[in-house]
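Q: Got a minute? One more chain.
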Amino acid sequence: MAATAQSIILHQYDISPFSEKVRVAFGIKGLEWFACDEPVIMPKPELLALTGGYRKIPVMQIGADIYCDTQIILRELEMRFPVPTLFPGTGKGLGWGVAMWTDRIFFQAAVAIIFGGGTPLADEAFIKDREKLTGRPFDIAGMKAAAPMMAEQFRAQLGWLEDQLADGRRFLPGNDPGLADASAFYNLAFVRWTSPAGAKLIDGFPGVAAWEKRVAGIGHGRRSEISRDDALDIAKAATSTEAAKADPGEPNGLKPGDAVTVMADDYGRDPIAGELVSSSAQHIALKRSDPRVGEVVVHFPRAGFLVLKS
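A: Always. Here it is, folded:
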């Protein structure tokens, strides 16, 4: 089956923990999608042609619409494919809050355990790349020294998951899986892939370990492969479906047509410039062009990103 402008294309690599979050969401929703494998480290010329500078993984592409960051990716998937939902029960807002915790505090504890314990990932090229990404030293020695303390932090957060599962529920929200499961699970998967010592910490929580197997059993939906060149050709031939729309509650008076710059507020703060198409409390979309892909619209979440009027 060949990809089209309506296909979901995930720019990812298999050992990317944040890509795993989205892959689990594909599994929950039973979606067909195309994996477009990107390099683990820079350069990433095809990805930057799509995003205008955003280099983090994953990025989702549907035609000429480009979605940067898992938050906006999952928001779009929920809008396009609302059944099965990522928010079973009544905890939609709480699900996003859990995702912010797992993406920052829980993830940082996992990273310290993985790289503090030694991993083949941490070769010289990877370290230099991550130093450019974060703008600070990727301090393996410091993470090694901190690993025992971060193991305590990771264990404490595993305990929260164990408590949530203590009533016998199958998944974190209840009987059906959702965003909270995909968000917590990817950190455990990352540790399993790269840190035997960290995996032993997970195994110390029987409820979590059993839940982990249930989430893994959901799978990743129906995956096919696509090359980077083919993905870019689809973007160039397509037209964005994002309509211009002003947000009457926009706190800083931004409106369609304004020149703006967007950047992450934590790391990978590469600025992406473009013309504002639409915005809301949860998203902002910019129109930009590139010789390789033509005109595209790049989408970002608002939480965790800064927007500056040019």
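A: Residues 287 and 297 are 4 Å apart (CA to CA).
Q: Perfect, thanks.
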